[in-house]
Amino acid sequence: MPNQDKRIVILNELELRKTFSRLTFEIIEKISNLENLLLVGIPTRGVHLAEVLRKEMFSKTGVNVNRGIIDPTFYRDDQNRVGTRLIKATDIPTSIEKKDIVLIDDVIYTGRTIRAAMDALLSWGRPKRVMLLVMIDRGHRELPIQPDFCGRIVPTSKKETIHLCLKQVDGEEGIFLDS
């Protein structure tokens, strides 16, 4: 949960809902066959975000898109720097062969989590294509990885942190910057 004393609201609840809707429409426009789509969340917030987008997509199209989880922890090249956390079980509910996959995370920073998640995902097979959706792109990339779908670009200092809060997890909704 963000530090409420020094936090700045990047997106309030209404703006966040509008962003979910916009990103959902962008995915629908880009993917010709939603039956072939798999939304894959990266723990922790990417998993919850994937579920929000899956529900949003169902409400707009009537298509119940498959959703999965990929935990990149053991594929990271920087574990000694970032440390480890409790592992979330990878759950890919269907073959990824020839699927359109949207990999989902809350914030992209260095790109190392996404690289590790792609390595983990490719150990499950060869998809048709992998696209990346993030709510916030905060810059400071160490690897040449860019999102295909992005909620907002928010330049930050390396000392600042960004938090995506979702009602079902945090009791409030919004995106916040802690300085």
Unreliably modeled segments: none
**Highest-level CATH class:** Alpha Beta
Percent helix, as a range, is: 25-40%
Number of separate structural domains: 1
Query: N- to C-terminal separation?
Result: 14 Å
What is the name of the CATH topology?
Rossmann fold
Gross morphology: globular
- CATH-derived architecture: 3-Layer(aba) Sandwich
How much is the average pLDDT? 93
Order of helices and strands: EHEHEHEHEEEHE
Which sequence of strands runs across the widest sheet?
3-2-4-5-6
Tally of contiguous helical segments: 5
| C-alpha-based Rg, rounded | 16 Å
Strand content: 25-35%
Characterize the largest beta sheet: strand count, sense, and whether it forms a barrel: 5 strands, parallel
Total strands: the figure is: 8
The helix-and-strand class reads alpha/beta
Briefly summarize what is shown.
The chain has 179 residues and is an alpha/beta fold. It has helices at residues 13-30, 45-61, 79-82, 112-122, 167-170, and strands at residues 7-11, 37-41, 66-69, 100-108, 129-137, 149-153, 161-165, 174-178.
Describe the structure.
By secondary structure, the chain is an alpha/beta fold. It has a single domain (14-157), classed as Rossmann fold (3-Layer(aba) Sandwich), CATH 3.40.50.2020. The protein is 30% helix and 26% strand. It contains five helices and eight strands, in the order βαβαβαβαβββαβ. The chain has helices at 13-30, 45-61, 79-82, 112-122, 167-170, and strands spanning 7-11, 37-41, 66-69, 100-108, 129-137, 149-153, 161-165, 174-178. It has a five-stranded parallel β-sheet with strand order 3-2-4-5-6, sandwiched between helices. The chain has a three-stranded antiparallel β-sheet with strand order 1-8-7. β4, α4 (112-122) and β5 (129-137) form a beta-alpha-beta unit. The longest helix is centred in the first third of the chain and has 18 residues, at 13-30. The model has no long low-confidence stretch (mean pLDDT 93).
